[in-house]
Design brief:
It is a single chain. The chain has helices at about 1-5, 10-35, 40-60, 70-95, 105-125, 130-160, 165-175, 180-200, 205-230, 235, 240-255. It is mostly helical and about 270 residues long. It has a domain at about 65-255. Helix 2 packs antiparallel against helix 3 and helix 4 (about 70-95) packs across helix 6. The longest helix is centred in the middle third of the chain and has 29 residues, at about 130-160. The chain is globular, with a radius of gyration of 20 Å. InterPro entries: PrsW.
Length: about 270
Amino acid sequence: MRDHLRFYRHRWFKAWIAMIVLSFSLIAVMQAAGNEALLPAAFFYGAAAGPVALLLATHDRTQIGVSVPAMTLMGMFLFGGGVALLLGGCLDSLFISPKDDVSILRVGWIEESAKLVPPLAVALTGRHLTKAAGVALGLSCATGFAIMESMAYAWKNVAGEGGVVGAGTILFLRGLTTPFSHLVWTGLICAVAFGTWRTRGRVVVTLPVVAAFVTAAVLHSLNDGLLVLDIPRPVRLLFLVVAVVSYWLFHRATRDLKPPVVPDQVPSHA
């Protein structure tokens, strides 16, 4: 408990603060100097702050980052996240209607399916078929997806009435929420799926895998519905409950992932 209360000492918190400060500093300089070339960097750091903080916190707790080669994780972040966003964007345009508010409840099923495609493609090759690797791949893909989606929202706000400051505020708020949404939903699915596939030795569809996907999709859709649908403001605050439940499920699904034990070095005697 004492360690939890001293969260400000952890790497994830320091990285989050540094990236938020850098984002707002870039926006401030852009406003003062009128140099709009700084906007992409400001939006990137603001969008990445929350996801990167969760990645650091999860790695420090589980050491999943060493379960997959760094270049593979980088590829999953850059290309896996991009492919997921491409698939999600195409399917959203087909099944989500601006005239039908309730159609927002389909988003969770669409985007969780899209984010699962890149890690599934790796799993089908038979490589990195471990639970730790699956969580690392899933979080990397979801991070790329979440960052690019947040930047898209920021650019949309700039084009609207919010302006640059409004876009920065949106990025800050999404930085607080995306770690407890996109990342943990995909991380939950991959934890259960890759854990099952490691035991079976191949990719199979089982009841636990389906249950994990359905749980993540329902939480995703419920979160979006609470934030978008025309409902009383107090009810909207239930999205915080969704965030807590989402992270709790992810943490529970990954609590068996422990850092590798390094044996104490025994001093040699002459």
